[in-house]
Amino acid sequence: MYYIGLVIEYLKNYLKTRLTYRADFWVEVISDLLMQASNLIFIFVVFGHTNSLGGWSEAEVIFVYGFFMIPFGLFTCFVNLWNFSDRYIVKGEMDRILTRPAYNLFQIFLENIDPPGLIGSLIGVVIMIASGSQLGLELVWWHFPIMILFAISATLIYAGIYIALTSLSFYSDSPTGILPLLYNIQNYGRYPVTIYNRTIQFLLTWIIPFAFVGIYPASLFLGRTEMFHMAWLTPVMAIIFATIGLTSWNIGVKKYRGAGS
Amino acid sequence: MNAIEVEHLSKIFKVQKSRAGLKGALQDLFSRQYNEVPAVNDISFSIPSGEICGYIGENGAGKSTTIKMLTGILVPTSGKLNVGGYVPHEEREKFVRNIGVVFGQRSQLWWDIGVIESFGLLRKVYGVPEQDYKRRLDELVQRLDLGDLLSRPVRKLSLGQRMRCELVAALLHNPSIVFLDEPTIGLDIIVKTEIREFLKDMNRQYGTTILLTTHDLQDIEALCSRVIMLDEGRIIYDGGLDTLKTRWGQGTRITFQFGTACPLPKLQALTSDLAVSWTADNDLHAEVLVSSDLNVSDVLAKVVGQPEITITDIKITETTTDEIVRQIYQTGSAQNNASDGQVV
Amino acid sequence: MLSAYTDFIRIRFLTMLAYRVNYYSGILIYMLNIGVYYFTWQAIYGDRGEIGGFTASQMTTYIAVSWMARAFYFNNLDREIATDIRDGSIAVQFIRPYNYVLVKMMQGFGEGLFRFTLFMIPGMLLALILFPVRLPSDPIAWIGFLVMLFFSFLINSQLNILTGLMAFFVENNDGIMRMKRVIVDLFSGLVIPISLFPGWLSSIMQWLPFQAITYLPGSVFTGRTTGTGILDVFAIQVAWFVILLIPIFFMWRAARKRLFVQGG
Predict the structure, then answer these.
(1) Which domain holds residue C7?
(2) Mean pLDDT score across all residues of chain B
(3) How many CB atoms are closer than 10 A to CB B153?
């Protein structure tokens, strides 16, 4: 209850700040949309040269992309660790966070909350509906609660990966961290992972499991039975990776050295 | 009851050794060497509830590291720690509800929104009931004279205004223990005095325990009944301020600039009945050291107003905490064991 | 004066050496990038011989060399400049006896040197082992590629500087920086070679500076552009380098004005 109250309070503050800088709000929304558009362009270009990617049709791949946008939007909104190293470690704002009576990671999430990200989730839903109807998908009632469960699970997996990697900033004081390097990799779980070789499949399934943010959970709704067993693993992976993320974060906080004097 | 208890507390940082030059840097890429640097080295002290204690030392002496351990930001390498009944780093989120922290060089307010919005948010974070918050805020706003600043965003405040707001932010939840890291740094004398008065009142009224670090001896003089002095991570003095000042303080230094030549013997003759020592670089410039048991005004009275001396400038400088630390070293501190303040 | 600038190169090179976590993980992640695109294109080619003028084998080489070129020319000048502007430290830079933009360029070059010797070259060797990459046999292609690679760095850094300076005019340019990153990766031909885009799109992209970053040097390395053709594509790069100096100049001037009027 306390934490829900905080979310609302921080959102209010977000809005107050944003109202001062209205132009930025729209720049951000538009840039988010362009980013998604450029990813779609890749899919369109690829399917301009082939009818199937590892046995998956264009509409199917676009459906997967639509699904992916839901957890991605949730993640962008609530788990924005982009500037963590620079702002909280190098500039020492972590000191302030640690002297406040709420869980430190949660405070960081709230301070960087980014609601425009949710627009991406909405567009994802629209894309799913469009490509789903093109495919003539028939969804049954239980698909909907499962879709919510999978979307939340995928968000947790996403968050877990990023939290674990961000917690490395407690050891290394590199200003940018390694997050930018991950930027491209997060896209790869949206394509049929079976086209990759075993090593990369293994990597995207078990080590940095971005496949669980895209292709695996979405396969359930597409009726791609060959991946059903992986789809149902999504919530399990969510628990595992959220735990890994939080544990490595908590260990990192203990190693926090403070900035400057 | 002790508000703060510290036993054999140490914090050791591993610092990477950088080898020199390009070759060294390449070697560092593949294997790293570390030095262990003790920032705080086996210190023990306790502070009773309701005491205002000054925590002083030169830069890098370990003051901030100690404060960060006491507030739960850093995890100690070894030693025992109890602040307000908690081990800070273990039950951080419960513990910090009882403390207030101000870092002089860092803001805890939101940069872009009105100060009052920050306060409102902190109220939620600390879970302060609406009515308590209103009462407390009114009191603080009135006491620190913030009335018309509340709606301004922090980025539009002056340093002095911001610091007063920082104090409010740290005290809204009425903490029983307050940590202040250089609260008066960079402020002008009027704001400094205001803040000192405010802290003293708060201590009297609520029995708040205060631990503050500072380089400004006047902060200590105005506020602290007790001083803990740190050097290279160890406590070198723990006791009353008076003892510290009379034994190691150099008193007050008055610097004169003369319009016409005024030789040293003449000045010494003028103050012959006072135990002061004069030094001079040349006939136009002289310094006198007034120990703390004498009045500065007595010395001035002897020199100023002499018809044959024209003074163009007078500067009065107090000993800083840094100078006292240096002095303790020069006089070989270990022998000086006083009853109410001991060098350890 | 010149030695002051070269010092910025040296210091950045040494700074980069200090961040080894980035460095180790960087090589692995770039291999993963190459791998993913290699297999994706394998799947797209199937048993077809040629797509958009690329044979399957040329595509493999193109992907590897494009990603490794990115390992060299990539930098975070945009982010650094935006941070300097937002925390106000840019004001100090104005009173220093050097040109801030030039200093940033030098720092970027120091980083580039590090990336070239310790990131791109080892990465390329690893890529040669892992994937069927074919190196050019013609020495002209090598020389042409290396010279053009340097201009890739220049043009990419210019775009980064422009993006970074935007922070003077919008309060939060994170969105713009993210957008730039995506656009450069897509329109430079890193993700998809320009010739594979639909006709209308690829003809638009030929009029944009992005292709000069990846696509043009890549086409020299893969042997799709040879002989005097190399000079032609190089001329396009040089032209873009010169053209991009103009907006930087005007933006910098506007930024100075803004800083002096608003007081940071």
Answers:
(1) 2-262
(2) 85
(3) 18
Span B293-326, pLDDT tens digits: 778 888 888 888 787 788 888 888 777 767 777 7
Contacts of B103 in chain A (CB under 8 A): 95-96
**In chain A, which residue's Cα lies nearest the Cα of C42?**
A195
- At B167 the three-state DSSP class reads helix
Confidence check: pLDDT of B338 > 50: no
The answer to whether position A9 is within a domain reads yes
Please tell me whether the overall predicted TM-score, pTM, comes out greater than 0.90 for this model: no
What range defines the domain where residue A30 resides? 2-255
Hey, is A219 helix, strand or coil? helix
**pLDDT, tens digit (0-9, with 9 covering 90-100), for C80-130:** 999 888 877 887 777 777 889 999 999 999 999 999 998 899 999 999 999
- Select from C40, C43, C175 the Cβ nearest to the Cβ of A28: C175
Spatial distance between the Cα atoms of C221 and C215, rounded to a whole number of angstroms: 10
Q: At a CB cut-off of 8 Å and minimum separation 6, what does B254 contact?
A: B287, B288, B290, B296, B299, B300, B314, B315, B316, B317
Strand ranges across the sheet with B277-282: B277-282, B285-290, B252-258, B311-318
Kindly provide the ipTM of the predicted complex, given to two decimals: 0.87
Q: Do B154 and B162 contact (CB within 8 A), yes or no?
A: yes
The answer to whether the Cβ–Cβ distance between A99 and B71 falls below 8 Å is yes
Structurally, how many domains does chain C consist of?
A: 1
Number of domains within chain A: 1
Q: Do the domain assignments include residue A225?
A: yes
Q: What is the mean pLDDT of each run of 10 residues along chain C (264 residues)?
A: 81 78 80 93 88 92 95 92 84 80 92 91 94 92 95 96 90 80 89 91 92 95 91 96 96 82 51
Task: Report the amino acid identity of residue C163.
Answer: T
- Please tell me the distance from the alpha carbon of residue A214 to that of residue A221, in angstroms, as a whole number: 12
Measured over the CA atoms of residue B264, residue B267, residue B272 and residue B275, the dihedral's sign is negative
Residue B45, H or E segment = strand B33-48
Angle between helices A228-255 and A143-166 (to 10 degrees): 30
Taking an 8 Å cut-off on Cβ atoms, the answer to whether C35 and A184 are in contact is no
Please give the mean pLDDT across all residues of chain A: 89
Q: Is the predicted pLDDT of residue A30 greater than 70, yes or no?
A: yes
Q: Which domains does chain B have, with CATH numbers?
A: 2-246 (3.40.50.300), 251-318 (3.30.70.260)
Extended beta strands in B89-133, E state: 99-103
Rounded distance between C-alpha atoms, residue A86 and residue C87, angstroms: 12
C-alpha distance from C237 to closest chain A C-alpha (Å) = 24
